[in-house]
Design a protein that fits this description.
single chain, 360 residues, alpha/beta, seven-stranded mixed sheet, two-stranded parallel sheet, binds pyridoxal-5'-phosphate
Length: 360
């Protein structure tokens, strides 16, 4: 049976990438060793990390004003690391649009003041607060947003603009490389790799070089300074070589498939299929404000929690796996990142129709 995996993360990877990694697993390009066994300082790995960076720059259109680095610890470590490097006793503005943004703000409080400029917490994070209502701090150290809210299922349709002189920083863990955006609007953005880029454990960080230079080196440990990663090509210590290798393969795959613009078209089409179906249905519902619905994580419910559980278990038996909603919000969630083919979304809709007929 064909399995479609709707996990929010670690999420499914393109089959072509999995096959390539499998084919090279025991013997990487005639070296006689697998990628897991090769020195990060040897001749095989350097071209891989160089390619991961070059592909990332090409796909996103990143200029030389920015550094592209790979940091262990996932997106969650960036919550603290960015504040350690860039806050330094000042005030940072955060838009609270979900669990991940509030976790990011909580870590930052250890290194300065945090101003929550807007929050949708009271309505269970069912929308993105309009930028016109944000109460921003003049001269803030930075403004932090979460571009896609993996758990609540909301997404910024347009990237906001920070006030002049305030760097815009974004957690893009669950929508990086899923749509085009203007890099020059950002001081920094970061993403845990396990949603759209590859294995868990590594974060892609893109930071303007002049911002990275603001860190007070006497206060931040070497391994937690952006400048260390920039100066050492992300190899101050042993980097997560296998994760970076998969990221290189994923970005190769993105380039072969027409890059970000082509990916965005497919992602829009997949999301439209599913939301159109939800909107027509009287059985299923979406708890999210229509204008802010995520194209990556589609949150939905059946008429009650028992049916949600039945839906998830019968879907699993039908080869549609990991559709359970996040434990904090319940219901169901279909994560449809870049690697999910249109056929997977269609198979889900077909199953949803059958389940509705049998249970309404
Ligand atoms: C998954 C996720 C995280 C956490 O990523 P880790 O790599 O597990 O730390 C942070 N932010 C967002 C938006 C996420 O989707």
């Amino acid at each position: 049976m064909k399995i479609y995996n709707f996990s929010a993360g670690p999420a499914m990877l393109p089959e072509a990438v999995m096959r390539k990694a499998q084919a090279e697993f025991l013997d990487y390009q005639g070296s006689g060793s697998g990628m897991l066994e090769l020195s990060h300082r040897g001749k095989f790995f350097q071209p891989v990390i160089d390619r991961a960076e070059a592909n990332t720059r090409e796909l996103l259109g990143i200029s030389d004003d920015y550094a592209v680095i790979f940091v262990q610890g996932g997106a969650s470590m960036q919550f603290a690391m960015l504040a350690m490097n860039l806050l330094n006793g000042g005030t940072a503005d955060y838009v609270d649009t979900g669990v991940w943004s509030s976790k990011a703000a909580k870590e930052a409080k250890m290194f300065g003041s945090v101003n929550i400029v807007a929050s949708s917490k009271e309505t269970k994070y069912d929308h993105i607060p309009a930028a016109s209502e944000w109460k921003q701090t003049p001269g803030a150290a930075y403004l932090h947003i979460t571009t896609n809210n993996t758990i609540a299922g909301t997404q910024y349709m347009n990237m906001p603009t920070a006030p002049a002189g305030v760097p815009l920083i974004a957690d893009m863990s669950s929508d990086i490389m899923s749509r085009a955006f203007d890099v020059s609007k950002f001081g920094m953005f970061y993403a845990g790799a396990q949603k759209n880029l590859g294995p868990s454990g590594v974060a892609l960080v893109v930071i303007r070089k002049d911002l990275a230079a603001r860190t007070d080196d006497s206060k931040v440990p070497t391994m937690l300074r952006y400048s260390t990663y920039i100066d050492e090509g992300s190899m101050f210590n042993t980097p997560p070589t296998f994760a970076i290798y998969i990221l290189a393969l994923i970005t190769d795959w993105l380039k072969e498939h027409g890059g970000i613009a082509a990916m965005e078209q497919v992602n829009d089409a997949k999301a439209k299929l599913l939301y159109d179906f939800l909107d027509e249905s009287k059985f299923y519902s979406s708890p999210v404000a229509r204008a802010d619905r995520s194209r990556m994580n589609v949150v939905f419910r059946t008429p009650d929690a028992d049916l949600d559980a039945k839906f998830v278990s019968e879907a699993t038996a039908a080869g549609l796996t990991q559709l359970k909603g996040h434990r904090l919000v319940g219901g169901c969630r279909a994560s449809i990142y870049n690697a999910m083919p249109v056929e997977g979304v269609q198979a889900l809709i077909d199953f949803m129709k059958k389940f509705e007929c049998a249970n309404k």
